[in-house]
Amino acid sequence: MNPKPHVLVVAGSDSSGGAGIVRDIETLAAFGVKASVAITAVTVQTHKGVEHIDAVAPDRVAQQMRAALSANPIAAIKIGMLATAETIAAVAQVLADHPGIPVVLDPVLVSTSGRALLSLNATDILRDLFRMCTLVTPNLPELSVLAASPVSTSSASAADQARSLLQSGAKAVLVKGGHADGVDAIDLLIQQGQADQPFASPRLSVTMRGTGCMLASAIAARLAFGDPLAAAIAQAKAFVHGKLRET
Ligand code: PLP
Q1: What are the beta bridge partners of residue 187?
Q2: Is the CB of residue 25 less than 8 Å from the CB of residue 9?
Q3: Which of 34, 81, 167, 192 could cross-link to 6 by cystine, CB 3.0-4.6 Å?
Q4: pLDDT computed for residue 1 by the predictor
Q5: Comparing C-alpha atoms, which of 102, 104, 60 is closest to residue 83?
Q6: Strand (E) positions, 65-166?
């Protein structure tokens, strides 16, 4: 029997179910992929705001990852909220022992409601994690913080900021255009030595929480099935667009 591939999700819980690990697991299930989890933080949230965050001890996060990796055939890893610099360091140690597994990192910094989901002192160490990732998926505000420059207002400046993340060691950066304007929502894939590749879908006048979690999990799911990166992104983008249309 060919077992279903597993994706290991390293992320925070959101009691409202609007984002975080609930969204990740729903997405993986929709793609027919099994989920294993390493919870990084327990958050108390409604759809209006984040009321409390308890970060899980970094060692415990690493233990969850190692247990999941030994229990199941993990074919891809999706990383979301990491909460603290110490947790990033613990996650990096585990990833170093599993260099062959594709890793999709959604660099979660701040909730839509404005609450920090990563300690302010942890941005530099988050950039250090990029070298261990197959793909990093910032939105425009996250890209601006990570590139230490103002929020991009054009695709050319977003591409330049993304290239600065490649210099930090990221193999590929997918800049999400959901926070931009224009009739299409265009995500831009930037890779070293390759032409920039746009992924467009009609912009819908709806908002939904957790779309960043869904996109990164959907990409990880398709990578777990062995899709090349661009094909995985195209499928994931179509999936999120379909979910937005349903709202
Ligand atoms: N809570 C958790 C645990 C998350 O992982 C994220 C985003 O990844 C959020 C909240 C923020 O979601 P939103 O910006 O949609 O509120």
Answers
A1: 199
A2: yes
A3: 34
A4: 46
A5: 60
A6: 74-79, 103-105, 135-136
108 Cβ below 6 A of ligand 1 = yes
Taking the centre of ligand 1 as the mean of its atom positions, its distance from the CA of residue 49, in whole angstroms, is 10
CB atoms within 10 A of CB 207: 10
CA dihedral 18, 117, 218, 128 (to 10 degrees): 180
Confirm or reject: Cβ of 24 under 6 Å from ligand 1: no
Burial class (CB in 10 A: 0-12, 13-18, 19+), 87: buried
Separation of alpha carbons 130 and 166, rounded Å = 8
Q: What are the structural domain ranges in the chain?
A: 6-246
Is 107's C-beta closer than 6 angstroms to any atom of ligand 1?
A: no
The residue to mutate among 14, 47, 87, 126, having the most atoms of ligand 1 within 8 angstroms of its beta carbon, is 14
The token duo for 97 is 């022992």
The reply to whether ligand 1 has any atom less than 6 angstroms from the CB of 177 is no
CA dihedral 119, 120, 121, 127 (to 10 degrees): 90
| 8 A C-beta contact, residue 176 and residue 200 | no
CA 48 vs CA 83, 109, 170: distances in Å:
20, 17, 33
Nearest to 6 by CA among 75, 63, 95: 75
Question: How far is the C-alpha of 81 from the C-alpha of 88, rounded, in Å?
Answer: 10
Q: pLDDT tens, 153-195?
A: 888 899 999 999 999 899 999 999 876 777 888 999 999 899 9
Give 110's strand partners: 116
Q: Using one digit for the tens of pLDDT, what is the confidence trace for 163-174?
A: 999 998 999 999
